[in-house]
Hints:
Elements (H helix, E strand, L loop, with lengths): L13 H12 L4 H8 L3 H10 L16
Amino acid sequence: MTKKRAHHGHGWTPSDLKKLRSLVARETPRAEIAKALGRTVAAVYQRIVTEQLSPQQSRGAGRRTR
Length: 66
C-alpha cells in the first residue's frame, strides 16, 4: 500500500505559499522543498511556475545539457 501525501488533493494555503517563496529565495532544491511542504516535486514545480517564481532559483535534481 502506498503512503498518501499530507496535502493530497488539497489547495495551497497562504502559509504554504509563504514557505515556498522563502525556500525558493534561498535556492533550496525542489526535492527538499517538496519534503518540507509534504508535496510532490511535480506539485512544487508547478506552483513555482504558477506563482511566477523563478524555477532557476530552485535547483532540480539535475539539468539536462547537450
